[in-house]
Design goal:
By secondary structure, the chain is α+β, with helices and mostly antiparallel strands. The protein has a domain at 74-146: Double Stranded RNA Binding Domain (2-Layer Sandwich). The protein has helices at 9-12, 55-60, 109-118, 120-133; strands at residues 74-76, 81-88, 91-98, 138-141. The chain has a 4-stranded mixed β-sheet, with helices on one face. Strand 2 and strand 3 (91-98) form a beta hairpin. The longest helix is centred in the C-terminal third of the chain and has 14 residues, at 120-133. It is elongated, with a radius of gyration of 31 Å.
């Protein structure tokens, strides 16, 4: 075989792919014609639900009413707060209320729990308001939340 007939490895290479749009192949993805964005679906405006969550989130996880079926509560001596739980469907939400947020409690676990029981309806209403602002797994309620 003559040297002129022999193909070098450089000649065997495949031609370079043109930088074209995959869906239509008519325009360059790097050009100023919109590139890949030309074929994207138009963005929908974000709709907000009454609770402020995006509509997509509310379709995936519908906002249910926060309920307090378990009336139990406990006092955390190290954190100086009372722990209670609420339920939003299958989700459990922990709430802590600082002991200084309760009205006129005397020191001691029994006195803090008695003050919590006396203000239970107000505490639950405030917890529902906090939860409606945005979903979290845990909330710490202070005196400022009750003002």
């Amino acid at each position: 075989m003559a040297k002129s007939q022999k193909r070098s490895s450089r000649e065997i290479r495949k031609p370079k792919k043109k930088n074209r749009c995959r869906p239509c192949g008519t325009h360059s993805r790097l050009s100023g014609q919109g590139g890949w964005k030309r074929h994207q679906a138009p963005r929908q405006a974000k709709r907000l639900t009454p609770a402020g969550a995006p509509a997509l989130f509310s379709r995936m996880y519908p906002i249910m009413a926060l309920d307090f079926p378990n009336q139990s509560r406990s006092y955390d001596e190290h954190g100086h707060r009372i722990r209670f739980t609420g339920h939003d469907g299958m989700f459990e939400v922990m709430f802590f209320i600082r002991a200084d947020a309760l009205k006129y409690p005397a020191d001691g676990e029994a006195n803090y729990l008695a003050a919590f029981d006396a203000a239970r309806s107000t505490i639950y209403a405030t917890a529902r308001k906090l939860y409606a602002k945005g979903r979290k797994a845990m909330y710490v309620m202070t005196a400022a939340d009750f003002a």
